Structure formats: structure tokens, C-alpha cells
Task: inverse folding
């Protein structure tokens, strides 16, 4: 057997691969709080009355600069969001850079500037780092690994397994922009307009909604898109999720590109989106608050959690119902 | 300007590169404890009366299997040692894998087994992970990033800047084995014998000596070798270090290979070595205790800390003195 691109595509193939080749084979996976087994956005351990949340991500996006961002912005936003959706306040990152020999300083400086800007905006420290260089041709330009550290009160983390029947599902804006922007940036097909990646740190937005209350779970729908994230919710919480397909925000040009490429926008990566499962009594207040934040102005309630077999059901405007199948892999390789 | 292999070689070139391109450009580098600026083996932050130490490393060794170890063992040992030399107890790692499409499962399973064995031995949890796959030819087989997390009482971390004149410098065994083993494994020159990498986790050894007391600083001399690590000690603590050159343990076959390649074994990477700066009153007890641990059986006192300009002086058996110059880069690329 050999590793294929699908094993890194964020869908069912990745999930199986990680379960069989890592989780089943590693004995020590827990320090008593959130463990590797849970395959959540991060894991945690207790220190006194606090809970420290950690997460890690390697970034291999191609191209490294794309409309709306670059690999540096992606690395910070992705990591920060993974911590924030666990209900913790991100406080620090570590960052490890692997360069291809010959990589231009000019490019590096742009990337470091993106990183610095975002760390500044989010009030997050870069605590530790590492740099390696490999021979020309032995890596594709640059790879950045970022690990994130966040903190919250003990027991206050939010897990994918905590959705409750009756919850409303909210998303903060329009989907599939990161994946399509990266695809367009590769220049492999003709497209006149511009699609910008949604890559953004969601710390302030999440701070805002946490103040309202009623949030049972959050997740950033990256590789594998919205549908993959919803399936993780459904399976871990053992609930059915019904989605009002027409209410999912999507920009026209994004839909156009997805149709052109023959891919389902529900399975395309986002890098500035969060889905929330919110107690129905709080849902309207959460929505209102989100819409006041620039990263949530197009927020919508897009579905509801029901009791039932763990799957995602799409409901059309005229009441049609269809089972939405979890993606085997993100249709676009190397988008993060 | 372009990134060169020397920028990742762990010596003066790497230090300058990191200072100018990262440290001077990133504004937020501290949470009030040990910061990125200090360029120590790791950094830290406080949680109540505890101090959490973090570190990160990407591993790009070629070949990925070599006598004495593999990239998995290297990733865990390297990270665990970075935490332990800060005076903290390693408790968890995060691990991120990037595969080249087509990487054999058989190889992966060997690597994961190495990782699992070491985590088990050291009682360390793998808390979080990530997997990415890139197209064939876009990365050299596999890259593993590991971030480490350790914990100690607040204010009890050991820093490179804490050497004191009068301290003895101790090393736990013979040098330059990792770098030479990896070079031999590449098969680029003829050598009949076998050199094994010293790659090993030093948690138990460091636990042992911490019990004795009198330890002011520790460091694992990896990229850039013993000499690079001694220079970091000398510069950060603003002291002179005198080294008794004949007392530095080195195996004959390692010395032979270094001579064959025309490189200085003092600058070749180790992955199972630690140097300690120890109060002279405790030095003999620390040495005795180290020698009882299998990772310290060849331990020696190899030098002394003196007041004076920050540099490393080599003293020969017949009393000759020479200034040892810090290496510009590790003479061997991609050894970790």
C-alpha cells in the first residue's frame, strides 16, 4: 500500500488513514483531558484550574501566494482558528519553516510580514521556531508548520461531540472561497474574474459569540469543506443534521467555478469560516452579534440538529430531502 | 538574496538568519517567561504556579532510516531532549506528517512504531497530529514536525544564559556519532565498518542528575555539534569556556570518518548527547550518577567555565591553548 493524495484530502480517506495508521498504533494519546482519539480540532491537558489546548498543522499550499492571502497568513489563521473553535483563547504559536535551497528572501519577508500582522492583530506570541533547508528540488519552495497553544478554564473546552438535538447550525459567511481561489491562482484554467480566499483569524468573532452563550460546539470547515465538518459533528455527537441547502451562503463566481470544475462547493475548503451548534434559544442573538463583526456579516442559520442516525440531510427550498454523502477527500489537493 | 543550505546548518549562518529574518521582524515573542528572543532550546509561559515549556522541530533527515534509528525516533528524541534540557518534564508532543504521494505504508509503519516505542518509554502522550500529502517529487519522501510540551514549577526552567564561572562542563558520552552515521548511510563514500547514530531520549538521565542538584544549564548539542552549543552557552552567559580537548569522548571510527571527510567532529551533530554546566561542588556526584545510566556511561568532565570574553578555548594535553571558532554551519546537511 502507498500513501495517495486522498490520504491528505481531509475527507473519509484521511479519517480512516489517521485512525488505522496512527491512532490504533500509538498507545499514549491522552493526559486526561481531550485526547488524540477524539480527532477534534485540537487536544488539551489540565494545569491546575486551567485547561491548555494544543493543535498542529503543516501547510503545503500551492501556490504560496494567492488572492486574499499567502502561506504565512494561512498558517497563523488556520492554527488560531483551530484553538478558538475549541473554546480556548489562543495565546501563542510555534512555527517551523522548511525551505528549498534558493528560496528568495523577498518572498520570505512577505510571508513573515503576513505572520507578524496576524499575530499582532490577534495578540498572539510566536514563542518558539525552527528552520531547516533542503536541497533544491527536494521540497516545493516552502513548508510551514504551526502549532498553537490556547488556554481556558478547566472543563470549559467545546468538543465536536457536544451537539444537542434542537440546536441551530450557524455559519459566519459564504463557503468554498479558499479552495476555489487557490485553484484559480494556479492558472490551470481560464477565468476572467477574481475569487479571494476567505482566510482570516476568527478570534474576535468567536470572542463575541462566546459572550452571548448557548454555544455547544464550533468547528472550522477547512479540508473537505462544510460537509466534511458537518459529518464530523454528526458522527461524534451521534445526531442527524438537517441542512437548508438554499440558505447556505455562496458567492455566484464561486458557484460558477465549482460548476466549471465539476466539484461540489459543500466539499471545498474554507479558511475563514466557522460553523456553530447553538442552543435554539440563543441562536438569533448569536446570529445578530455575528453579523456585527466583519468576519460574520453574512452569517446565516443553515440547519438544525435532530435526533436520529448520524448523517447529514439536505433540504431543498421546495421541501425535497436528500442524504448528503461525506466526501472521500477534498476535491482540490494542496489547498492548505 | 536566497536561502542556502548553510541557513539551515545550525551554526553562525543559521543564528544570523533567524535573528534578522524572524526575531527582528516579529513583534510579539513573549508571554512573560522564556521568549523567542532568547533562542534557547524552547520557550515557556506561566499557568498559575507552573511553567509550561514548548519547543518545535521539523525533521528532514536523509536517508530516513539509518543505523541506530530513523526519522521517527529522531523526531521524538530531539523534541523530548529539547524540553528536558530546559529543566522541564516532557509530557506531550504534537506531530505533523507530510508525505510524498506514493510513500510506502510499510515504511510509515516502521516509523510510527519507533515513535510509539519512544513515547511509551518516556511516558509521553501524542496529543494532536496532522497529515498532509503532496504530489510525487514535491517533497523528499517524508517530513515530520514535532512540537513538545513540558512542565515544571514556575521559575524552575534552566536557561543557556545561566552558566557561572567555576562551573564544570560535563558531557554524557562520545560525540559526532549521529552526523557521521547519517553520512555513512548515504553510501556516498566507501566505509567498511558501521557507525550508529546516538539518537536517544535523555529523559531518565536528566531526571537522575536533576535529583543531585547544582545544575545551572543544559543543552543538547545537535546541528553544529558540541562547539556550536558551547558557543551558545558562552555568548548567552557572557563567559569563557575552556575545553580539555583530549577529554572529549569520541569513538575511533567516528574520528576516522571525520578525518576522511575533512570535517571537525566538534561541529558534527549529536542526537543523544547533553552538555551540562554544573556547580563544581556537585560535578563529581553528577558525573557518578550519570555513569550509572546507560545513556551516560561514558560521561566526562570536559571543561570549565571562566570569567572572560565569550568564547571557547581548546586546551591540549600538553597545555597548548587555541581559540575554537564557532562553525558557520554544520558541515553535513540534512542530518536532522
Result:
Amino acid at each position: 500500500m502507498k500513501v495517495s493524495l486522498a490520504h491528505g484530502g481531509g475527507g473519509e480517506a484521511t479519517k480512516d488513514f489517521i485512525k488505522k495508521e496512527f491512532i490504533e498504533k500509538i498507545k499514549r494519546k491522552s493526559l486526561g483531558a481531550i485526547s488524540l482519539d477524539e480527532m477534534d480540532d485540537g487536544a488539551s491537558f489540565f494545569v491546575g484550574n486551567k485547561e491548555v489546548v494544543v493543535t498542529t498543522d503543516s501547510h503545503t499550499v500551492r501556490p504560496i501566494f494567492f488572492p486574499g492571502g499567502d502561506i504565512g497568513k494561512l498558517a497563523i489563521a488556520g492554527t488560531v482558528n483551530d484553538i478558538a473553535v475549541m473554546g480556548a483563547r489562543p495565546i501563542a504559536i510555534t512555527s517551523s519553516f522548511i525551505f528549498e535551497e534558493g528560496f528568495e528572501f523577498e518572498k520570505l519577508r512577505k510571508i513573515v510580514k503576513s505572520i507578524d500582522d496576524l499575530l499582532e492583530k490577534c495578540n498572539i506570541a510566536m514563542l518558539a521556531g525552527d528552520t531547516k533547508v533542503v536541497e533544491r528540488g527536494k521540497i516545493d519552495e516552502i513548508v510551514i508548520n504551526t502549532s498553537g497553544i490556547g488556554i481556558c478554564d478547566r472543563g470549559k473546552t467545546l468538543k465536536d461531540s457536544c451537539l444537542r438535538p434542537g440546536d441551530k447550525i450557524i455559519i459566519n459567511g459564504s463557503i468554498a472561497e479558499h479552495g476555489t481561489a487557490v485553484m484559480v491562482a494556479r492558472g490551470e484554467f481560464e477565468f476572467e474574474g477574481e475569487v479571494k480566499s476567505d482566510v482570516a483569524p476568527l478570534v474576535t468573532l468567536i470572542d463575541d459569540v462566546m459572550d452571548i452563550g448557548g454555544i455547544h460546539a464550533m468547528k472550522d470547515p477547512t479540508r473537505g469543506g462544510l460537509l466534511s465538518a458537518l459529518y464530523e459533528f454528526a458522527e461524534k455527537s451521534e445526531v442527524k443534521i438537517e441542512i437548508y441547502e438554499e440558505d447556505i451562503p455562496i458567492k455566484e463566481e464561486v458557484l460558477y467555478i465549482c460548476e466549471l470544475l465539476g466539484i461540489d462547493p459543500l466539499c471545498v475548503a474554507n479558511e475563514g469560516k466557522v460553523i456553530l451548534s447553538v442552543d435554539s434559544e440563543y441562536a438569533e442573538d448569536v446570529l445578530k452579534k455575528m453579523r456585527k463583526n466583519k468576519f460574520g456579516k453574512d452569517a446565516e442559520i443553515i440547519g438544525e440538529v435532530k435526533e436520529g442516525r448520524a448523517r447529514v440531510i439536505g433540504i431543498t427550498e421546495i421541501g425535497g430531502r436528500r442524504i448528503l454523502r461525506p466526501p472521500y477527500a477534498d476535491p482540490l489537493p494542496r489547498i492548505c
About this structure: Chain A touches chain B through 88 residues (CB under 8 Å). The radius of gyration of chain A is 19 Å. The domain at 31-153 of chain A is CATH 3.30.1330.10 (60s Ribosomal Protein L30; Chain: A;).
